[in-house]
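Project outcomes to date are best conveyed with an example. Our students and postdoctoral researchers have been running inverse folding experiments weekly, and each run begins with a structure described purely in tokens. The record below, which covers 70 residues, was selected by the lab manager from last quarter's runs and is presented without edits.
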């Protein structure tokens, strides 16, 4: 059996064509959009961690050792 495996360039072009046809987005814009989404997610997780840290530190029902552990 002769199964032809597409190379990475062919796959990339097929993805770009699909994005362009479905969403009218050019491939170069997708890369920037993905970077921006990743930065936003990282920022959101960081902010959530800081909020949780403040809540834990303000919780009087926890012992001092428990607050430090959390």
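After processing, the design step wrote out the following sequence:
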């Amino acid at each position: 059996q002769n199964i032809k495996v597409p190379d990475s360039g062919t796959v990339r072009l097929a993805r770009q064509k699909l994005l362009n046809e479905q969403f009218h987005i050019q491939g170069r814009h997708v890369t920037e959009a993905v970077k921006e989404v990743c930065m936003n997610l990282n920022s959101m997780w960081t902010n959530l961690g800081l909020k949780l840290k403040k809540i834990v530190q303000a919780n009087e029902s926890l012992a001092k050792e428990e607050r430090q552990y959390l």
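Residues 56 and 70 are 7 Å apart (CA to CA). The mean pLDDT is 85. The training component of this project remains on track.
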